[in-house]
Specification:
333 residues; mainly alpha; 20 helices; 0% strand
Length: 333
């Protein structure tokens, strides 16, 4: 069977038939670097990373000057979480082909994962000079703007990415986040639903889907989503905080406090969970208990100004003005 026939099967998603065809071709032409590369890509798609690496290294040994072979090997390393090895492969691909948009995009994603949004953006913009509408580069730029709390510009890149690659769950998830941050909760809900249709295991998309439903007043649907996450033990902080928000909107303050406490136990320094617990205690009439939540929270997060002001106000209401002044940082208090 010809390599072209095997590749056509691969492109149409007939992976079993494509694999048989690649292996049959290699039985006749064991030194065909392209066939080794393509079978390596297919084995990586099927989760066989070790075999994929072996095949790709064999392809590189036979044709070391082909950039896409190094690019594919970098993808294997990146999937494993070996970012240094992945970066070396992507740099090798660029040394062979400086116009390899995929390599620029991959290095941009590695920089983003490392927290360097400036370097990530630079890589993505270089890649766009080569291929303006590469969907993974557009995804990267969208994520950079999300990290900078700029959802409007993020949505511009992510919408275009989704148009180019509508079946990419990561793009749909980021697009949903951009809509969510702009308050377009119905659009966010649709994007997260799209992501989960493609990859049902994405717990972050499931958490945001429940949040989007909560923001639209779909309380029972939101509660079911948060409860499923809590039961599965995935996204537990967000799940418990979400269940608290649902109970709070339903006027069930005691139940809300129970869930907020569970969230706070997972992250004792989270200002949102601390404030939520304090609000419940204040609503229940226990001002001292509310103040204690805020004071303990400040011990865990001493720079959280969003806890300092409400604590000082509660202390004033409790007649503890000197303590309130110290919390505010008034000189001489």
């Amino acid at each position: 069977m010809s390599l072209e026939t095997a590749l056509d099967l691969h492109r149409h998603g007939e992976l079993d038939a494509a694999e048989r065809a690649y292996r049959a071709h290699l039985a006749e032409a064991p030194d065909d670097a392209d066939a080794l590369y393509l079978l390596g890509v297919l084995r990586q798609q099927r989760g066989a990373g070790d075999e994929a690496e072996t095949l790709l290294r064999q392809a590189i040994a036979r044709a070391p000057d082909v950039a896409r072979y190094h690019l594919a090997l970098g993808g294997v390393h990146m999937h494993r979480g070996d970012e240094a090895a992945a970066a070396a492969c992507f740099e090798a691909a660029l040394a062979l082909d400086p116009n390899c948009a995929e390599a620029h995009g991959a290095l941009g994603h590695l920089a983003f994962l490392g927290g360097d949004t400036a370097a990530a953006e630079q890589r993505f913009r270089i890649g766009r000079r080569v291929e303006e509408d590469d969907p993974l580069i557009l995804l990267g730029l969208g994520n950079v703007h999300l990290a900078r709390n700029d959802p409007a510009n993020a949505a511009k890149f992510l919408t275009r990415a989704a148009e180019r690659r509508p079946d990419d769950a990561a793009i749909q998830t980021s697009l949903g986040r951009a809509y969510f941050e702009q308050g377009a909760f119905a659009f966010a809900e649709q994007a997260f639903a799209n992501a989960l249709r493609l990859r049902p295991e994405l717990s972050l998309a499931r958490l945001y889907l429940a949040r989007a439903k909560l923001r639209q007043g779909k309380l029972e649907e939101a509660r079911a989503g948060f409860a499923a996450l809590a039961e599965a033990g995935t996204q537990p902080f967000g799940a418990y905080a979400g269940l608290g928000d649902v109970a709070r909107q339903q006027g069930q303050v005691v139940k809300a406090l129970k869930f907020y406490r569970r969230a706070l136990a997972l992250d004792p320094a989270h200002p949102g969970a601390i404030n939520a617990c304090a609000w419940c205690m204040e609503w229940l009439g226990d001002l001292a208990g509310a103040a204690q939540y805020l004071a303990t929270g400040l011990e865990h997060a001493p720079h959280a100004d969003e806890l300092r002001r409400p604590l000082a106000e509660l202390l004033e209401r409790l007649g503890r003005s000197d303590e309130a002044a110290r919390v505010r940082g008034v000189p001489g208090a």
